[in-house]
# Entry
Amino acid sequence: MRDRIVGSPFSGPVGATLLFGTFSFLALREFITLSPTRRSDHRSLILAFFVVLPVQYVLRPNLNFRGFAGTIASGILRRGDEVVALPSGKKSKVKSIVTYDGELDEAAPPSSVIVTLEDDIDVSRGDMICRPHNQPHASQDIDAMVSWMSEGPPPPPGSQ
# Structure
């Protein structure tokens, strides 16, 4: 029988998971700014855990191969992961992840990869491949801070 501290909440697999989560959060907290922020500042941190692959090019050298080339923007993509193509909403699973060096089991940012899917769904340049439950928020609004670097005043809004 293993030596354990009786009654300790940090023993066994549950305790190990709690300790890992706590230390991971404390390490992450060191990288988060403590200055006043807007709600939109936190979206980029949350998006780091989503898988997003903007499709830059569709490769179809013959009828038996259809690959989607792009650079992984965020998250880790693994063979067998369920994904959805946006904006169509069609779902499939990752069949393979191919790079210049050969096939990979997983890929992370900023890897340039070619992804093949198990199903023949229509994905074209400009579409995004992501996880079904972690889709990026689509919006027509942006929140931006503009720094004007010229000595003269900026042009009035809508003049260009």
